């Protein structure tokens, strides 16, 4: 696997693992955060339902006032009862609205939704029970006081007290759920719930005296038993509240509300209840009516309500404090996670830029150097680390390779120059004798394959020695150069021209018959004769003699033999007066044997 892919896969794998770990931890923090938020919401719902229980308990006091034998007390109780019932109904509406809103936020088919439905069902039963209890209270209140039976009043009171018990079921469901999802709420919630039950039991304790005080009759044995039982529950709840606040290390343990309960309800209301219970059991006069008892007993119960509110406030503050802490932890975890991911990406980019990219670029250069490719530049760098050392080493290796290549190119160029020097006449630029035979042999082979004729022309400058003697060798060389130029200008690409030495030149032309060969020789002779040379102010011209021979390529076995025929024709032109062209007559071709 290539290094780039390996590095990318490794980085992606590491980034994925880190991301999964962060997501797992973040999800755990988020679940804790969501649980705390849900716990606070359920805590608020619990407080709303507790308010329902409180209002329903408060409604009992004016309801019992309807059973008074005094018309003024009944009228006052009716007004108070109307306000109390309105407050209770409003508390029910608020609780149901809160449950509905939280159910909508909780989604469908979740444990929270199921719990809220159970609480709402229990609260609905309590509301139905409240309606029936009100009907009973109103029915019994319409009975004349002298015809009203204590059993009917007790039954109506019991049904009214049962409303609070039904509401307590909803409170237990809500507070239990809040404690499960956030255990730190267990102690303050339990103490608050106990305080609400204490308020209910205290109210219920007072109702046991209503009929006897209204009618000024002794307490029955069952009334005394109910009073003692309720007193026992109240003392038990007080002990549990004090124990819960002490064990839970709640601030309410040292709060003024607990001290107030001791000073007012425990030290004032309970002794009054014990005294009235003892007097009523003995059939002695009570010394007060139901209204007088309520004016002393009911205000003292407000300390219980304040204790409940204090305990709930502690639970709410504890939940809010935990919620804020969890929210900060979630935010901190998210920021740390993002920072880790960003650092990982930054490290990846840094390594990719500072290590991987120069490493791969240098590796490519080294591979090209190994393959003989030296065109790629080595990336420049000022680094002094290992990567920099490798880049500098690659640059040095490339420089050595370039120098070696330049030396090889120079050697090849010199070899070519030597080859050219060995095959080209240095003065005229035409092929020399050796190169002539190489080129002529190749042309002869090509002409033989195509069955073309071959013309050989031998040229020699007339009286060239006189030119050197009269005008100097420099002007003689100029004549040779000009003659070579004229020859090259008159030939085609496949034709070959060469200087055989001194003032003698040879031309081989393929694909020309005898007439064309003779015409070429004449054109060369006339072109040269028309050239005017200037030597030290004296103008002169030169002439050449030419010998021409044309043969089919298939009949030429030896180019030297053909040249012999052309030379003979050249010598004949010399002997006949020079400045002329003679055609050689080669022997007829041999007849095939067989």
Which features characterize this protein?
single chain, 594 residues, alpha+beta, 5-stranded mixed sheet, two-stranded antiparallel ribbon, 15 helices
Description:
There is one protein chain. The chain has 594 residues and is α+β, with helices and mostly antiparallel strands. It contains 15 helices and seven strands. It has helices at 3-65, 71-106, 111-141, 150-181, 186-207, 210-215, 221-247, 256-282, 290-370, 386-423, 433-450, 464-471, 473-490, 514-529, 559-575, and strands at residues 453-461, 496-501, 504-510, 532-535, 538-541, 544-552, 581-583. α1 runs parallel beside α5 (186-207). The mean pLDDT is 81.
Give a concise summary.
By secondary structure, the chain is an alpha+beta fold. It has 15 helices and seven strands.
The number of helical segments is: 15
Q: What's the arrangement of strands in the largest beta sheet?
A: 2-3-1-6-7
Q: SSE order in H/E notation?
A: HHHHHHHHHHHEHHEEHEEEHE
Q: What portion of residues is helical?
A: over 70%
Radius of gyration: 65 Å
List the helices and strands and how they pair.
Blueprint: H1 3-65, H2 71-106, H3 111-141, H4 150-181, H5 186-207, H6 210-215, H7 221-247, H8 256-282, H9 290-370, H10 386-423, H11 433-450, E1 453-461, H12 464-471, H13 473-490, E2 496-501, E3 504-510, H14 514-529, E4 532-535, E5 538-541, E6 544-552, H15 559-575, E7 581-583
Parallel strand pairs: 6-7
Antiparallel strand pairs: 1-3, 1-6, 2-3, 4-5
Helix pairs in contact: 1-2, 1-3, 1-4, 1-5, 1-9, 2-3, 3-4, 4-5, 5-7, 5-9, 7-8, 8-9, 9-10, 12-13, 13-14
């Amino acid at each position: 696997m290539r290094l780039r892919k390996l590095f990318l896969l490794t980085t992606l794998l590491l980034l994925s693992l880190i991301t999964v770990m962060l997501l797992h931890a973040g999800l755990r923090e988020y679940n804790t955060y969501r649980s705390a938020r849900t716990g606070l919401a359920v805590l608020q719902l619990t407080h709303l339902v507790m308010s329902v229980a409180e209002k329903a308990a408060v409604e009992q006091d004016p309801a019992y006032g309807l059973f008074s034998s005094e018309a003024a007390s009944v009228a006052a109780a009716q007004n108070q009862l109307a306000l109390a019932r309105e407050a209770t109904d409003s508390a029910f509406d608020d609780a149901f609205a809160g449950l509905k809103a939280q159910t909508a936020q909780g989604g469908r088919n979740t444990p929270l939704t199921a719990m809220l439905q159970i609480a709402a069902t229990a609260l609905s039963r309590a509301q139905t029970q409240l309606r029936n209890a009100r009907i009973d209270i109103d029915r019994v209140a319409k009975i004349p006081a002298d015809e009203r039976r204590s059993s009917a009043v007790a039954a109506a009171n019991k049904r009214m007290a049962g409303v609070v018990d039904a509401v307590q079921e909803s409170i237990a469901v809500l507070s239990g759920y809040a404690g499960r999802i956030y255990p730190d709420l267990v102690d303050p919630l339990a103490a608050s719930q106990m305080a609400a039950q204490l308020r209910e039991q205290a109210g219920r304790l007072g109702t046991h005296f209503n009929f006897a005080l209204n009618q000024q009759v002794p307490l029955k044995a069952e009334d005394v038993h109910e009073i003692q039982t309720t007193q026992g529950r109240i003392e038990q709840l007080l002990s549990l509240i004090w124990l819960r606040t002490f064990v839970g290390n709640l601030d309410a343990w040292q709060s003024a509300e607990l001290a107030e309960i001791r000073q007012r309800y425990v030290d004032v209301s309970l002794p009054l209840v014990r005294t009235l219970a003892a007097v009523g059991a003995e059939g002695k006069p009570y010394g007060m009516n139901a209204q007088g008892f309520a004016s002393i007993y009911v205000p003292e119960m407000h300390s219980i309500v304040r204790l409940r509110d204090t305990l709930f406030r502690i639970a709410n503050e504890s939940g809010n404090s935990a919620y804020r802490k969890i929210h900060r932890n979630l935010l901190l975890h998210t920021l740390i996670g993002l920072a880790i991911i960003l650092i990982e990406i930054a490290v990846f980019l840094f390594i990719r830029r500072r290590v991987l990219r120069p490493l791969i670029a240098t590796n490519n250069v080294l591979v090209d150097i190994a393959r003989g490719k030296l065109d790629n530049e080595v990336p420049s760098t000022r680094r002094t680390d290992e990567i920099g050392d490798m880049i500098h080493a690659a640059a040095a290796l490339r420089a050595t390779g370039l120098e070696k290549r330049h030396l090889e190119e120079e050697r090849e160029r010199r070899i070519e120059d030597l080859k050219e020097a060995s095959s080209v006449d240095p003065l005229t630029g035409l092929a020399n004798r050796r190169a002539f035979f190489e080129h002529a042999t190749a042309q002869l082979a090509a002409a033989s394959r195509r069955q073309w004729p071959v013309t050989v022309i031998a040229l020699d400058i007339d009286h060239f020695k006189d030119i050197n003697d009269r005008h100097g060798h420099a002007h003689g060389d100029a004549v040779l150069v000009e003659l070579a130029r004229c020859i090259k200008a008159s030939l085609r690409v496949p034709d070959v021209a060469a200087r055989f030495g001194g003032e003698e030149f040879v031309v081989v032309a393929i694909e020309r018959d005898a007439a064309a060969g003779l015409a070429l020789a004449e054109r060369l002779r006339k072109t040269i004769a028309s050239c005017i040379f200037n030597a030290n102010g004296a103008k002169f011209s030169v002439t050449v003699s030419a010998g021409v021979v044309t043969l089919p390529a298939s009949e030429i076995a030896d180019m030297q033999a053909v040249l012999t025929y052309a030379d003979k024709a050249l010598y004949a032109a010399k002997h006949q007066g020079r400045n002329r062209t003679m055609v050689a007559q080669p022997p007829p071709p041999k007849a095939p044997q067989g």
